[in-house]
Predict the structure.
Amino acid sequence: MSVLFVLAVAFCAYTYVGFPVLLHMLAMRREREELVVPETLPSVSVVIAAHNELGNLPAKLASLKQLDYPAELLDIIVVSDGSTDGSLEYLHNAEKSMPQLKVVALHAAAGKPSALNAGVEASAADVLVFMDARQSISINAVQDLVAALSSPGVGAASGELVLLADSPASGRKSLPPEPVSSSSDAVHVGLYWRYEKWIRANESRRFSTTGATGALYAIRREDYVPHRPDVLLDDFDTPIKQLERGQRTVFVANAFAYDRAEPSGKGEFRRKARTLAGNFQSFSRHLWLFDPRRNPVWWQFLSHKVFRLLVPYAMLIALISSALGEAPWLRIMLLLQILFYGAGIASFLGVNNRLTDFIKVFLQLNAAAVVGALRWATGATNVRWKG
């Protein structure tokens, strides 16, 4: 039992600490790439799939109007996917005063992947920039993504999602000194997200990330492969299709999409469970990712994407092995684990401080991995916009 406990704890420590540190050390050996805007800029289509986004579309379009990309090279394609809240009517009215805007209407909601396919079909541009309807973006975002795509060997460019307490003013270019939130859960979710972005930046510097920020990423129009209608994670499937061709996905740290942090861990739990269910779907459809001969980022893919899904089971093994073991030090380890889980439960019950709330969010994120696996295994996943 002692060996089993040590292996389980070592696995968790490697996944959350050892891998990121080792990755950072390896990434630091590579020179940092500088963005160079090409002399001849390509035409760009911003593609947005929207379902009942009337509350977000005005701010989104206002943000896009402030982009520093040449207007004659940019069009904005918004696909209304079965919207019933007046979004389509608003978009048609906006077309009259915004020549760059093209509206595609799907009268029956088909899901985001089908909406994206319809938006791309309506585009004749050289570059596609995918965005969500909710987030405002920095004025330099499109130009920086295009600059990243112009580098040899780059097949996709991902922007950076910034979580803030309040909706930022559109057109913002630089980050605030330190995003803040009145919600303790949101603070810890934001901390986790900054940790995740640090890993992605190091992956990008070493060679390639294994996904993109769904709120803001770009590929060449000629590289787009239409999605199957049930795809859950377009921002994972699209970049790894580029990776399969030997093309990198790079993280562009100065191209910002600004979003509001989830006010509670429950909201982040729902989002994370859906994302992780999507990971299982993508893994099952792209088994080449597990082949080191075909996947140029095999080690980081396993360490970052796969091992995270296995941590909850390693935690369970650590708990059981320490409970069944007879060594005195295992009894101490068992007590520490009971205190750890007890602190998380206490946070759920209203005993809130930085430590208990951090543990609660950590436990929720790992529980989401289990729920995501169950959803995928039982077929309880779909491309609905909510849930």
In short: Confidence is low (pLDDT under 50) at residues 166-172, 174-182. The longest strand covers residues 248-260.
